[in-house]
Every structure is written in C-alpha cells, then in structure tokens.
Write a structure and sequence with these properties.
A hairpin with a 2-residue loop joins β4 and β5. The chain is mainly alpha-helical. The longest helix is centred in the first third of the chain and has 35 residues. It is built from 32 helices and 9 strands. α18 packs parallel to α20. About 65% of the residues lie in helices and about 5% in strands.
Length: about 800
C-alpha cells in the first residue's frame, strides 16, 4: 500500500484534476485544439496540460520514494568524497616508492562499497540471461541506428508504381540489424552454455525487482490507459480496461472457486471461441466478393495468381516452370489433382480450399498448444484470443491467400510434431520430424527454414550434443517424403508438371534471390493506420525481447544438463520465432505479425501459468477479501506483459469481428442491386457482366488469331478461369512479376520483338478500370506498346492493339 502525506495528496489531486481538465475540456465548454481556453490565454495545448497532470500525479504517488532518494544518493557520495583525498595521496606515494600495482589494489579495497565489483559479479552470476538480453536489445537498436544510411534501391526490385501503391520504403537497416542481433544472441547463448557448464553462472535466477502490490498495479494501469488515451480512441481503451479488470477478477476469485469448475469453464470457453473461428466462414455460401471496387478486385486477382490459380494451369497441361513462382508446391499439386478429377475447380472452389487450409491450421495450432501444456487452460485460451483471430475461415485472409494456412500450415504442423516427438525416443522422433520438415518445405520454403532450424535445436537440447545420426535420419525421412509425394502426384495427375530445367529448381528460386537483394517494406516506428502501431510495435518488440531472453536462459540451463521435453520444445519454438521474426521486421504491420502471434502463444501459455492466478490452490487461512488483496503481489515484468497483452487482445479481436462480418456480408450487399455468380463467387451484376463479356471477347479474339495473342490485365486470374487461356510468366501478372525498372524495359522490348498479332490491354474506363498507381502503370504499358503497336479499337473492357504495319494495310 502507498501511504501519502497531506502535501502528496494535494499534488496527486491537482495532477488528476489537470489531467481530467485536459481530457474533458470539449465537454466542459473549455474548447478543443486552437479553441482551448488555456491555449488562447498562455499558448498551452491540451496534450501539454495532460502531460503536466500525469507528471504531478506520478510525483505525488511516489513522493516518499522521491524524498528518500536524496539521502540514498548523498550518503554514498559523502563516503566516496572522503576516500578521494586519501586515494590521491596514496597514488602520489606509490609513484615515489614504485609500489603502483600494490597501491591500486589497496585503493580498490578501500573504496569498496556494498555495490562493489564482487557484488556486481554476484549480480551477473545470478542474472546473466537478463543482462545479455538487455545487451542484445541495445545492440539491435544501435545497429539499426548505425546502419540508417544503408538503403536498398527499391526500383531494382519493383517498379515505381508498385512502390507508390504500397508506400514501400527501404528497410535494409532493420533487416541487417535483425540478422546481426541473431548472431549476437547465438554468441551470448554459447557463452552462457559454457559458463553454466563450468558453474560460473547460475541457471536459475532470482527476482531483480520487488513485486508490486495491488495498489501499485492499479495505479500504473490507470496511468498507462490514460496515456494511451491521448493517442488511441476510447473504443480501444475501454475494452483494454475491461480485460485488465478481468485479469484482476480471476486473480481474486480463483482460490475461492473449485478448480474443476474453473477448468470446465476454461475448456468451454476454448471450445466456443474455436467454433467462432471456424464456423461463420464455412457456412457462407456462396462466397461473396468482399469489396466491389476495381482496385480491390485487382488486388484479390493478384493474390489468386500467386497462390491458387497455378493449379488450374497445371491441370490444363502446363508445368510449374511455365508459371510464376508461388508460395509452395504441395497445395497447388493437391488442387491440380482435384481440378483434373472435377474439371470445374472454379475460383469459388479455390477460396473454399483456402478455408479448409485455415481449418487445418486451427486444428493443428490448438493441438500443438494442448500437447505443449495439456492442462494450462487459461494460457491456451489467452494464446487463442491473441493469435486465433487470424486463423478464421471467414476473413480478409481468404482473399489474400498468402496470409493463411495455404502458405503457413507448416508452422503449426511443425510445432505439433515436436510436441508429439516428446513421447518418442529421439531415434524415432527424428523420422517424424524429418517427414514433417519435408511437408513444410513443400508447403512453403521460407517457413520451412525456420521450422527446420527449430527441429535442429530441439534435438540438440534433448541430447546435449550435436546428434549427427539423428540429423541424417531426419534428412532420409525428408527425402523419402518428397519422393513419396512425387510418386503419388505422378499417379494422380498422370504426369509430373516439371520440365528438365525445372528439376534443378533454379526457376522456382529466382524470386527468393530477388527478395534477398535488399529490404523493402515499412518502417518499424511509423504510427501506422489509426496510430495502431503504438500497440503493435511494443507488443512485437516484447515478443522479440522475450524470445531472446528465453533462448539465452534455456542455453544456460542446457549447460547444466539435457533439457526435458517441455524446456527443449520451448527453446526450439523460440529459435523458430527469432528466425521467422525477419518476416515482420522487413515490413512491420499487423498483417505480417499473425504467424508470430501463433508462435508466441507457446510463451504466453508459460507466462499465464495457473499458479500465478492461484487456480487450484487453497485459500489463505484468513480468507477475507481485504487480506487477500493486501497479500497479492505481481512481478513488474509480468505486469508489463499483461498490460500490453490486454491492449493487443483488443486489436486482434476487433479485426476478427470486423473482417468476419465483411467477409460474410460485404457492404455492397446493402445496396440491394442484382447479384450474379461468376466462377462461383457472388458479385454485383454490373461487375459480373463486365468480367463475363471481357472473357467472351478474349476467347473470340484468341480463336480468331489462332492463339497469337497476349493479354495484359489486372483481371488475369478471372480471365484464366473463365477462358482457360494461360500465359507464361511474367505476362500473367505484370504488376508484381516485373523485378524492377530495368526489367520492365527489357520485358516490354522482348514482348514487342515477339511480334504477336494482337496485344490486349485493359480499357481505361468501364466498371473494371483501375485508378491511382495501377492506372499510371497501365498508361506506361500503353506507351511502351505504342512504339510498335496501335490501339485499333476498344471492346468489352479491352483495348485491342495491332502492329503499326498491319494497321496501315
């Protein structure tokens, strides 16, 4: 409890009064912004007045600590001052008597204080993981600052219109700082392993700071929420406050409620939330177009081209090397077999397949959490509330397939396999993890790298050695899995969709080479849309710091002996998370963080241990509420975790509600306009007719010109689906498949040199005409084509370009 004197109470009251005046000024008739009364009188803004109020309130609450700070500093300073003259004269004497080393040793002993070198060494002995974590974080920020001038030329990777559309900037400094920090963490982990092995540092640490009582926690929570209110709306602050109150209620009532009843309530809550993630999207039939806008339709089309549409081309007889590289081979191969059997794998069916991938992600993720700590119901529920909104089967991700289980299913499968591997001998577990690693590789190469590194660390942690034989078993299992996939795919499809060149896989990895040329994306400390990064970035940095600490601490424990299953998996998950964090740091925003939230869920489960909430523990002998409140304590680190978690839960679940509703009932349905199914997707009749007429014209012109035609469209996925006319990369999608400005000129020159009889380009007007940067890009394509071709006519959404010499004749 914080005891305040009369003067401190006055300061607190004045501080909160000023803060309330600043927040409620518009409602009290004091005006806002430039009309604020105090601003007109003395030029002070509402925000500045709020800062003064917060400062006074904090000063009043901690007045006793501030008053006691002076003597605590002055006493050591006086002691130090008394030692300085004696040390100075001893130093002079040492020069005369040639006893310099001996004098320095005496000086060190004479000036020893309670915080001496010995005390510092003891602190490092007990808190080495924490100190090295702080050092790694400081290195990360200093490296990012030092390399702020290191930039990549984005026009070597993307065209200028793409850069402008997505507002990308260079992020090479963030990317390089992350890589260097990973190297530093690996070095620190190795150092702690060796020191713990020798007994120099302790594997178990003591608390650094004293725990906080309930009064301190409530006060700091209130100050934090009030501070956030200055930059975030009430719609974020009030739910976060409610979640904080819920945490407090659980802590207060947990020991009074029967544990079995508490566990049942948690399990029921997990089941209800799981159903809320998977059921709403699956019952939507047919799937409607999420946004009726030409630019949004072009964005959806682009993602379909990069993910699911390749399956239709493979089923039609083309090879993977003919198509643009997507995000993996396994899912397109499954879809191509389905298309070969049904001959009707429409875009609506492709979206439904993405939903099933999300469903598999949900089951695998929940299974991994449950096997990781089977009875940690509170932690599992919190992890699902944090990461689950992005596993939903009906949301924005269904139309952006690269942000779903279609690409990232390897992550939960890998974690589930590790959880099950703990029930096996390492020799048998190696076969399982090797097979799952190969499946993850076929799903997506990038996530497979992070998962495979986690597998390697897992076996090192379990055996406390570098188990070469286990790694060989993993490699053999992975190779057998890939061979099995090739055999089954050959039998199901009737052929292998690879040319002789594609066996080398060089064409498939060209895009990886392109993406590793330099960092592009967003800046880490941008405010973001609606100031959302004030919540997201602190949480992301907390993930990074927490993962670093767990990696170093687990390495310290490994120095004392092999880790058990739980600790080994915890270290492996942390390794995967640290490596995969590169995906977020390249383009920091909420859309890039959802897979990291899933991985961080394992650490959330550990932090929200039922013992911290006294779930299943007997009540105190004096079970009065006041007694319990007086004895409640919470470590500052755990308090910070819960506070930031409460803010993040509001953000993620708001996205869940918003995008689930927009997926099932998009706004264009409210206009009561006619609706038509196109490729099993429900859309407005105006948009549907435009797509159908455009596809019909393409088929007619393609037949007329005997296939000597190339079309450049932002609706190429729908055109391919409706016509069955597929194009070679990069003509399939010139928007993102052109690797930079120089490549644009080279591709357009090659197109003109190939002399097709007709080139079709999207019309500049009509229901499907795009605007903004995409329109400028189309105009640049028209200008390039115009060097050798002429626009002869515009028909049903197409501009028909023919060679100049053909037009003259």
């Amino acid at each position: 409890m914080i005891k305040l004197g009369n003067s401190a109470k006055v300061i607190v009251i004045v501080g909160f009064a000023l803060l309330a005046t600043a927040l409620l000024a518009p409602y009290l008739g004091l005006g806002g912004k430039e009309n604020f009364l105090i601003y007109r009188l003395i030029g002070m803004q509402r925000r500045e007045l709020a800062y003064i109020g917060i400062a006074l309130a904090v000063a009043g609450l901690f007045a006793n600590a501030i008053r006691g700070f002076g003597p605590r500093i002055s006493v050591p300073l006086r002691k130090l001052a008394s030692h300085v003259p004696a040390a100075y004269y001893r130093l002079l004497a040492s020069f005369r008597n040639h006893q310099f080393p001996l004098t320095l040793e005496k000086m060190r002993a004479a000036m020893a204080t309670p915080w001496s070198v010995a005390r510092l060494c003891q602190f490092l002995h007990n808190q080495a993981p924490l100190c090295l974590t702080i050092a790694a974080l400081l290195f990360f920020f200093l490296a990012m600052r030092a390399m702020s001038d290191v930039t990549s030329n984005l026009t070597e990777q993307w065209t200028k219109e793409v850069i402008r559309q997505y507002e990308w900037v260079s992020s090479s400094d963030q990317r390089a700082a992350h890589v260097l920090t990973l190297a530093v963490v690996a070095i620190f982990a190795g150092i702690c392993f060796k020191l713990a092995q020798r007994g120099t540092i302790d594997a178990w640490h003591q608390s650094v700071a004293s725990s906080w009582g309930i009064t301190t926690c409530i006060t700091v929570t209130a100050l934090g929420l009030i501070s956030y209110r200055l930059i975030l709306p009430y719609s974020t602050i009030l739910p976060a406050a409610a979640i904080s109150v819920l945490f407090l209620v659980i802590a207060i009532t947990a020991s009074r409620v029967d544990q079995r009843l508490t566990n049942r309530a948690m399990v029921v809550s997990i089941a209800i939330y799981f159903l809320a993630l998977v059921v709403p999207g699956m019952v939507v039939h047919p799937i409607p177009l999420m946004v009726d806008d030409p630019v949004a339709l072009a964005q959806f089309d682009m993602h379909l081209n990069s993910t699911t549409m390749s399956s239709r081309a493979v089923a039609a007889g083309y090879g993977f090397d003919y198509l643009p590289y997507g995000y993996g081979l396994l899912m397109p191969s499954v879809m191509s077999v389905i298309d070969r059997i049904t001959h009707d794998f429409t875009i609506g069916h492709q979206l439904r397949f993405v939903q099933y991938c999300q469903l598999l992600f949900c089951f695998a993720a929940l299974g991994a959490y449950w096997c990781y700590r089977p009875r940690a119901y509170l932690g599992i529920l919190a992890a699902m509330l944090l990461a689950g909104p992005y596993w939903v089967t009906g949301g924005l991700g269904i139309w952006h397939q690269n942000q779903t289980g279609l690409r990232s299913l390897g992550l939960p499968l890998g974690m589930l396999a590790m959880a099950l591997a703990g029930r096996m001998a390492p020799s048998r577990a190696a076969w399982l993890l090797g097979a799952i690693g190969a499946v993850a590789f076929l799903i997506n190469f990038e996530t497979a790298v992070a998962v495979s590194l986690g597998f390697v660390i897992y076996f090192v942690a379990r055996t406390r050695q570098v188990p070469i034989l286990l790694f060989l078993r993993m490699a053999c299992a992975g190779l057998l899995t890939i061979v099995t996939w090739l055999i089954i795919y050959r039998l199901a499809l009737g052929r292998l969709p690879f040319s002789s060149d594609a066996i080398e896989l060089t064409s498939s990895f060209k895009i990886l080479e392109r993406f590793t040329q330099g960092g592009f994306g967003l800046r880490l400390f941008d405010a973001g849309y609606g100031n959302e990064n004030y919540v997201i970035v602190p949480f992301a940095l907390m993930i990074f710091a927490h993962a670093i600490y767990v990696a170093i601490q687990s390495s310290t424990r490994l120095g004392r002996g092999p880790l058990n299953q739980h600790a080994a998996m915890r270290l492996a998950v942390t390794t995967t998370l640290l490596v995969w964090f590169a995906y977020y740091i390249n383009a920091p925003n909420w859309w890039q963080l959802w897979t990291h939230l899933f991985l961080y869920g394992f650490l959330v489960i550990d932090v929200l241990d039922r013992r911290r909430f006294a779930i299943g523990y007997p009540a105190m002998p004096d079970n009065r509420l006041t007694t319990r409140l007086r004895h409640m304590r919470l470590a500052p680190a755990h308090f910070l975790f819960l506070f930031i978690l409460s803010m993040m839960l509001v953000h993620t679940n708001r996205n869940l509600v918003q995008y689930t509703f927009e997926f099932a009932h998009p706004s264009w349905l409210n206009s009561h306009q006619d609706r038509v199914l196109v490729s099993d997707v429900l859309m407005p009749k105006k948009t549907a007719d435009a797509l159908l007429n455009k596809a019909s014209t393409l088929k007619r012109l393609y037949a007329t010109e005997n296939g000597d035609l190339i079309y450049l469209s932002f609706n190429s996925a729908f055109m391919q689906d409706l016509t069955g006319i597929f194009q070679r990369d990069p003509y399939q999608d010139l928007w993102v498949r052109v690797p930079g400005e120089a490549a644009f000129d080279r591709i357009m020159t090659a197109l003109l040199n190939s002399r097709p009889k007709v080139i079709l380009i999207d019309a500049s007007d009509g229901p499907l005409a795009v605007s903004g940067a995409r329109r400028d890009y189309q105009n640049r394509i028209r200008a390039a084509v115009g060097r050798a071709y002429r626009n002869s006519a515009t028909e049903e959404g197409w501009q028909i370009w023919i060679p100049l010499d053909a037009s003259k004749s």
